[in-house]
Amino acid sequence: MSDMKNLSTTPAVHALHPAEKPGILVKPGAEPVLKATNITKWFGENHVLRGASITVWPGETVCILGRSGSGKSTFLRSLNFLEDPTDGTVEIDGVIVGADPFHTEGGERQERIREVRMRAGMVFQEFNLFPHLSVIENCVEAPVHVKGMDRKEAEAIAEKYLAKVGLLEKRDEYPSRLSGGQRQRVAIARALTMQPKVLLFDEPTSALDPTLVGEVLKVMADLAHEGRTMIVVTHEMDFAHEAADRVYYMDKGEFAEVGPPEQVIDEPKDPRTKEFLSRFRTLGSKK
Ligand code: ADP
Ligand code: MG
What we know:
With 287 residues, this protein is α/β, with parallel strands linked by helices.
């Protein structure tokens, strides 16, 4: 098996997929803010990502669909190096980091990873708030300690985003006293307080009680419509349909189909996408 592993780290040339065209909120002439090229990941003998590439322009929302285990989380986590890809390159807002499977690069690469992480805010399925910190403390922790932001400034920015997600009055509350939907909205405000160039969401509503999904999707749809740049892994087809400029269907670690939601969701061409969506509908998940 091991001879099949392509561990070359030669810089890959980023090629646009034919369906990758700037979305409606993108300013004319804008360059992509995120380019991920040929992202490849092996976990032992498990070839989890098989050269997945994506291009996102500033102001776009793109959604990634795909069945459980297809590699969506690993792909998203590779974009900010929570997973170290085996091959491929990520460029966010001009900061370029390549795979380094043999750990031959040193601290300078770590510094670029830090720069990438400051540009790519992540919202997880499980909120990941610090239980011992209040809402406002949760929001300012990273801006102050990672970005070196002045505390007062960070609090002012956090309050602005807490107001945006409708939770300013919970400013001094602790996460345990909030509903799941409120916690996820705090997690979104926390990510926004870092003032990232791109927001990455990994199934942000999958852990929620169904009655609380709507309030989180509403916040995300508002962010999409005001021109935030977002990559959203989701099973919420209505959200993807309404908010996404493009949809990527991931199958076995590669993007099997890319296109506008009206095409990929309503009239999928690839048999793998067709099969997923038809099963999805029979399971009754489409509202
Ligand atoms: P998805 O998010 O689409 O459900 P994942 O990216 O979580 O898929 O997982 C893709 C594959 O990678 C699965 O086979 C999973 O078991 C494997 N995998 C994910 N994380 C790890 C890990 N840390 N170690 C080993 N295998 C992993
Ligand atoms: Mg996942």
